[in-house]
C-alpha cells in the first residue's frame, strides 16, 4: 500500500472555481475561503498512476476513483464518480471502478455536515480554523445528506486536475503546446496532426506533472454527465449477490462472535451464571464479558456462537431505570412542555401580543412521536484483527472510518492492548440511516480481537440485539399555538418541543473527548420546527431537553422526522380553522419564499390537487426545507369504515439544486417516502421495565409490497449548487398522510404512529387507525 | 451425511443436520448471497429456491431437505454469466439501493414467475412478502412486470 507522504499539494479558491478572478494572496481572505485540496502528488505504482487523492489511471485505461463516503444504497459512489468523470473527460462505463479509500486523509474530510455550510462558502478565520481542526482528525463520515454537497467541488477539481496532468504529459509526448490539445472519451487529441493518445498510455508521465494551481472547471453548458441519469456502479454486482457487505467478510482463520447486551440501558453484568456451560457448547472457544456491560460468545462459526449465546444466563445489575415505562417517559415529555425554563431558539417580534385575550382566534394542539429503531437490513457487525506486531485492521460497514479507528483503539484498550496502527476498510453497507455512525460494535469486536490476537474476529449482533439493544431516535412532544388574524393567517406562531437531545447522547458514546457540549438547544431537537419559509409576523420556537436512560443517536432526518409532522399537521389545522384550502393557505404563507412556492405548486399540479375524491379517500400536503433542499409531498389515502388506512399514492416534488444523477435522486425520494410511510403508520419502540419491548420484524414491522404506495417524483429545475437528497424524502411524509386522513375522515390524528399494525396472515399486515384498533 | 444439489453441483455435508440451511450455505459452502436479516423467516433476505420453491433458508434445517436441489442468488445467472431475466429486469429498473435484501427478492420473484408467468399486482402482493428497509418497493413491482414481459417474449 503506497503511503501518501508527499505534501506538495495544491490549493484552489472557492472564488476561482466559481468562475471569478484569481487566487488571492496566501494569507488573505481568498486563502481563508479555499477549497482545500491538499493531497498527494502523483506517483506511479506498478501499472497504475495515482494522479491525486481521488483519481488513479491504469495503463489499460481503467480509472479507479476514491470516493471517501460510505456507499449505503444512496448511490453516492456513482454520483461522486460522475463528478470526476465529467471533468476527466472519460465515458461513464465499466472501465470506471469506485473504492472507498483506506487512507484517512485531510482532503477526504467532511466539512459540510459539521460546519453546516458548503466548504466553498466557509469563509473567514473561524471557518478556516474549524476546517483545519476537522482535517487534522480527519473527520470522514457519511451523514447529514452532506456527501454531494461537500464534494461537489473537490471531486470535479480532482477530475480536472488529473485531466490537466494527462494533457500536459500528452503535449510533451507529441511535442505540441498544451493549448492545441483536446480530450474526449479518455483520449488526448491533437486535431492538427490527427494524433490521439489514450490516457492509459500517458499515466507514467502524467504522474510526474505538477498538479495545476487553478484547474478550470467545465461550465454547466458543457456537462455531458451531470444531470443525466447514469446506471449505479454497484448494481451489477448487487443483482448477482456478489458485493461483500460487512456481514460477508471472510478472512483466514476467522473467529465469529455473538453478543448479549443488557436489556436496560446503563445496566451491566452482575453475574454470568453459566459461563462454563456455554463455553462447553459446540465450537465455542471463549465467553467474554466486555467492559462489564455485555457478554460475547466466540466460536468457529456465527451460527454456533449465536446458538450458544441463546443459552447464556446473565444476571444484570439493577439500575434506576428498571421501572421506566413508555407512559412514564411520555409524561416527562408533556411535563417538559410546561417547564418555565425552556431554551429559546428563536423569538421574532412580540408573540405574546398575538395571544392576548380577544386579540385573535387561537389554534392550539399537542403532538407526540415515539422512540424509533433503525432496523437496517444488515445487522450490526464489525471484523477486527490485531496482528502480532500490534497493527490493527478492521472491516465494517461504518458511516465513519474515523469513529471506526477510535472504536478499534478503545476496544483494544479495554483489553489493555494499544494498537500501533489501525487500518480501516469500509465495506459495502446494508443500510445505515445514522445507526452506523456509532462505534459500539467496533469497540466490542476490537476487544475480542485483542483477546484472540492474531486471529480476525467478526462480531455480528442478532436482529433482536439490533432492535432492542441499539440506539434510538428520541421520542418527542410538541405544543404549537397560533393566533390567526382577520385573514385567517397566523399573526403569531409559537412552537415548543420536548425531546431527548441527540448530539450530546451520541457524542458521549463516540467522541474520545468531552461530551459534545450542552444538551440544551440541541439542533437535532429543533430542526424543522421554525418553518422559516412561512411568513409569520411574530414567531417563537423553544425546546426542552428531557433526559432519560435511553441512548439517542442519529436517525434518518433526525428532528425533521418529528418536527415536520408536528408543524405541518399544525399548519393544516390552522388552515382548517381559517376555512381555507391547505394548498391555498400555504401559498399565502409562502409569499416571500419563491423557491418553496414553486415546489409547492409543482407537487399540487402533479397530484391534481383540487380534483374531487370519492368518500373515504383524501389528499394531504406538507412541505419542508431540509439539507438545503426543498421538498413537498401530497399523500392520497383510503380509510375504510373499519379504520383500515392505506396510503395509495405519494407525489413528491423536490428542488435539490443541481441534480447530479436524477435517477438516484428519484430513488432516494422513493426510498425516503417508503421509509416514512413505515414510520408514520407502523413504527414505535416501547419501553417496559426499562427495556425495549420490540425485538424483531414481527413487532417492529415494515411496509411490504402489499402495503406500498405508488410514488411519483419530479425534480424542480434549479441552478443552485446540489443540496442533500438522502434524508429530505422522508421528511414531509407523516404530515402529508395525517393531513390526508383528516381530509378523508375529518379526524385529526396527532400522535405517531397513526395506526396500529394488525396481522392478517403470514407476513401480511394491515394498518388500522389507532382509535379504530381493537 | 446430507446430500444436496446446490446451484447445479452436488455437495455432501456431514454432521450438520440441525444447522439451518442459511448457515450451511454461508459458512460451509461459502455462498454469501443469501443473507441473515432476522433469523425468524420474517424478512426474506435468506430466501433460496428449494426444489423450485422460494423458501426462507434461516428456518430450514439441513437434515430436513436431504436430496433437494437448492438455488441461491449466485445460481440465477447462466453459466456463461448472462443474467437471468429477473436479474436483468432488476438492473434495467435500477432496483437495489443498499442491496442487502435483494437476493431474497430476486429468488422470490424467480419462483413467482415460474408459477405465474404474468402476475397481476394482487398476485405479486400475495407472493412477495420480503422486507426492504431502503424502500425499493415501487421499483421491485416495476421490475417484476418487466421481467414477466421479457420472459413472455422469450
Summary of the model, kept short:
The complex is a heterodimer of chains A (774) and B (154). With 774 residues, chain A is of the alpha+beta class.
Label this structure with key terms.
heterodimer, A: 774 residues, alpha+beta, Aldehyde Oxidoreductase, domain 4, 3 domains, 32 strands, disordered N terminus, B: 154 residues, Ubiquitin-like (UB roll), DNA polymerase, domain 1, 2 domains, 5 helices, 34% helix, OxRdtase_Mopterin-bd_su_IorB (chain A), Xanthine dehydrogenase family protein molybdopterin-binding subunit (chain A), Ald_Oxase/Xan_DH_a/b (chain A)
Textual characterization of the structure:
- The complex is a heterodimer of chains A (774) and B (154).
- Chain A has 774 residues and is of the alpha+beta class.
- In chain A, strands 13-14-11-21-18-19-20 form a seven-stranded mixed beta sheet. A five-stranded mixed beta sheet of chain A has the order 3-4-5-6-7.
- The N terminus of chain A is likely disordered.
- Helix content of chain A is 29%, strand content 24%.
- With 154 residues, chain B is α+β, with helices and mostly antiparallel strands.
- Chain B has two domains: 74 residues, Beta-grasp domain (Ubiquitin-like (UB roll), Roll), CATH 3.10.20; 68 residues, DNA polymerase, domain 1.
- Helix content of chain B is 34%, strand content 14%.
- Chain B is built from five helices and five strands.
- In chain B, strands 2-1-5-3-4 form a five-stranded mixed beta sheet, covered by helices on one side.
- The radius of gyration of chain B is 15 Å and the shape is globular.
- The relative contact order of chain B is 0.16.
- The mean pLDDT of chain B is 97.
- The interface between A and B is large, with 60 and 55 residues.
Amino acid at each position: 500500500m503506497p503511503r501518501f507522504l508527499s505534501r506538495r499539494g495544491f490549493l484552489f479558491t472557492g472564488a476561482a472555481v466559481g468562475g471569478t478572478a484569481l487566487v488571492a494572496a496566501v494569507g488573505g481572505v481568498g486563502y481563508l475561503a479555499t477549497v482545500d485540496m491538499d493531497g498527494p502528488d502523483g506517483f506511479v505504482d506498478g501499472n497504475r498512476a495515482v494522479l491525486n487523492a481521488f483519481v488513479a489511471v491504469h495503463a489499460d485505461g481503467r480509472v479507479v476513483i476514491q470516493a471517501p463516503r460510505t456507499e449505503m444504497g444512496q448511490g453516492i459512489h456513482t454520483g461522486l464518480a460522475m463528478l470526476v468523470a465529467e471533468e476527466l473527460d472519460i465515458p461513464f462505463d465499466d472501465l470506471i471502478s469506485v473504492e472507498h479509500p483506506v487512507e484517512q486523509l485531510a482532503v477526504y474530510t467532511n466539512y459540510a455536515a459539521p460546519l453546516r455550510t458548503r466548504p466553498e462558502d466557509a469563509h473567514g478565520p473561524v471557518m478556516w480554523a474549524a476546517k483545519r481542526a476537522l482535517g487534522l482528525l480527519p473527520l470522514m463520515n457519511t451523514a447529514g445528506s452532506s456527501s454531494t454537497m461537500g464534494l461537489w467541488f473537490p471531486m470535479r477539481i480532482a477530475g480536472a486536475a488529473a485531466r490537466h496532468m494527462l494533457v500536459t504529459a500528452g503535449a510533451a509526448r507529441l511535442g505540441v503546446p498544451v493549448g492545441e490539445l483536446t480530450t474526449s472519451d479518455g483520449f488526448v487529441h491533437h486535431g492538427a496532426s490527427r494524433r490521439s493518445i489514450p490516457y492509459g498510455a500517458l499515466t507514467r508521465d502524467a504522474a510526474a506533472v505538477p498538479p495545476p494551481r487553478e484547474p478550470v472547471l467545465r461550465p454547466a453548458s458543457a456537462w455531458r454527465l451531470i444531470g443525466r441519469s447514469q446506471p449505479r456502479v454497484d448494481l451489477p454486482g448487487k443483482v448477482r449477490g456478489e458485493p461483500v457487505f460487512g456481514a460477508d467478510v471472510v478472512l483466514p482463520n476467522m473467529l465469529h462472535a455473538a453478543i448479549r447486551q443488557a436489556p436496560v440501558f446503563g445496566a451491566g453484568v452482575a453475574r454470568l451464571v453459566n459461563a462454563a456451560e456455554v463455553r462447553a457448547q459446540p465450537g465455542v472457544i471463549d465467553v467474554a464479558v466486555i467492559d462489564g456491560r455485555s457478554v460475547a460468545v466466540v466460536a468457529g462459526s456465527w451460527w454456533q456462537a449465536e446458538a450458544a449465546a441463546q443459552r447464556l444466563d446473565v444476571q444484570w445489575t439493577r439500575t434506576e431505570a428498571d421501572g421506566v415505562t413508555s407512559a412514564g417517559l411520555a409524561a416527562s415529555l408533556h411535563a417538559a412542555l410546561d417547564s418555565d425554563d425552556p431554551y429559546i431558539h428563536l423569538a421574532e417580534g412580540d408573540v405574546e401580543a398575538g395571544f392576548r385575550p380577544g386579540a385573535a382566534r387561537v389554534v392550539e394542539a399537542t403532538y407526540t412521536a415515539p422512540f424509533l429503531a433503525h432496523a437496517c437490513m444488515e445487522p450490526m457487525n464489525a471484523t477486527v484483527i490485531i496482528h502480532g506486531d500490534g497493527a490493527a485492521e478492521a472491516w465494517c460497514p461504518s458511516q465513519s472510518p474515523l469513529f471506526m479507528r477510535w472504536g478499534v483503539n478503545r476496544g483494544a484498550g479495554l483489553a489493555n492492548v494499544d494498537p500501533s496502527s489501525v487500518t480501516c476498510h469500509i465495506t459495502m453497507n446494508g443500510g445505515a440511516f445514522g445507526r452506523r455512525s456509532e462505534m459500539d460494535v467496533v469497540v466490542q469486536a476490537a476487544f475480542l480481537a485483542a483477546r484472540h490476537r492474531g486471529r480476525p474476529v467478526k462480531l455480528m449482533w442478532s436482529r433482536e440485539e439490533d432492535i432492542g439493544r441499539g440506539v434510538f431516535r428520541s421520542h418527542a412532544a410538541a405544543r404549537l399555538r397560533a393566533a390567526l388574524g382577520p385573514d385567517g393567517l397566523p399573526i403569531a406562531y409559537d412552537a415548543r418541543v420536548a425531546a431527548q437531545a441527540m448530539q450530546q447522547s451520541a457524542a458521549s458514546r463516540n467522541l474520545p473527548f468531552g461530551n459534545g457540549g450542552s444538551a440544551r438547544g440541541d439542533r437535532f431537537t429543533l430542526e424543522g420546527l421554525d418553518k422559516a419559509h412561512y411568513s409569520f409576523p411574530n414567531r417563537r420556537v423553544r425546546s426542552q431537553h428531557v433526559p432519560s436512560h435511553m441512548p439517542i443517536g442519529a436517525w434518518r432526518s433526525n428532528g425533521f422526522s418529528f418536527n415536520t409532522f408536528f408543524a405541518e399537521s399544525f399548519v393544516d389545522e390552522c388552515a382548517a380553522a381559517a376555512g381555507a384550502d391547505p394548498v391555498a393557505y400555504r401559498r399565502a404563507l409562502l409569499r416571500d419564499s419563491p423557491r418553496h412556492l414553486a415546489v409547492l405548486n409543482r407537487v399540487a399540479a402533479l397530484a391534481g390537487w383540487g380534483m374531487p375524491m370519492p368518500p373515504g379517500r383524501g389528499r394531504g400536503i406538507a412541505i419542508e426545507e431540509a439539507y438545503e433542499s426543498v421538498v413537498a409531498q401530497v399523500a392520497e389515502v383510503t380509510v375504510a369504515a373499519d379504520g383500515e388506512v392505506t396510503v395509495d399514492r405519494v407525489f413528491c416534488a423536490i428542488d435539490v439544486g443541481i441534480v447530479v444523477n436524477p435517477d438516484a435522486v428519484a430513488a432516494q425520494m422513493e426510498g425516503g417516502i417508503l421509509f416514512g410511510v413505515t414510520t408514520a403508520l407502523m413504527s414505535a419502540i416501547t419501553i417496559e421495565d426499562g427495556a425495549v419491548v420490540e425485538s424483531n420484524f414481527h413487532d417492529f414491522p415494515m411496509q411490504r409490497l402489499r402495503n406500498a404506495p405508488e410514488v411519483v417524483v419530479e425534480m424542480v429545475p434549479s441552478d443552485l449548487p446540489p443540496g442533500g437528497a438522502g434524508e429530505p424524502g422522508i421528511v414531509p411524509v407523516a404530515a402529508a398522510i395525517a393531513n390526508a386522513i383528516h381530509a378523508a375522515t375529518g379526524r385529526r390524528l396527532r400522535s405517531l404512529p397513526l395506526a396500529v399494525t394488525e396481522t392478517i396472515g403470514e407476513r401480511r399486515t394491515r394498518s388500522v387507525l389507532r382509535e379504530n384498533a381493537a | 451425511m446430507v446430500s444436496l444439489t446446490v446451484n447445479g453441483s452436488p455437495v455432501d455435508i456431514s454432521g450438520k443436520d440441525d444447522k439451518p440451511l442459511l448457515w450451511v450455505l454461508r459458512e460451509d459452502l461459502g455462498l454469501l448471497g443469501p443473507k441473515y436479516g432476522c433469523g425468524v423467516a420474517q424478512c426474506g433476505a435468506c430466501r433460496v429456491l428449494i426444489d423450485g420453491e422460494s423458501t426462507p433458508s434461516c428456518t430450514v434445517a439441513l437434515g430436513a431437505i436431504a436430496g433437494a436441489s437448492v438455488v441461491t442468488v449466485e445460481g440465477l445467472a447462466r453459466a456463461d454469466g448472462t443474467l437471468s431475466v429477473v436479474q436483468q429486469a432488476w438492473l434495467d429498473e435500477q432496483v437495489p439501493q443498499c442491496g442487502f435484501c435483494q437476493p431474497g427478492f430476486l429468488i422470490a420473484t424467480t419462483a413467482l414467475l415460474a408459477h405465474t408467468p404474468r402476475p397481476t399486482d394482487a398476485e405479486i402482493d400475495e407472493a412477495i412478502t420480503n422486507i426492504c428497509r431502503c424502500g425499493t418497493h415501487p421499483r421491485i413491482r416495476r421490475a417484476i412486470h418487466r421481467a414477466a414481459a421479457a420472459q413472455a417474449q422469450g
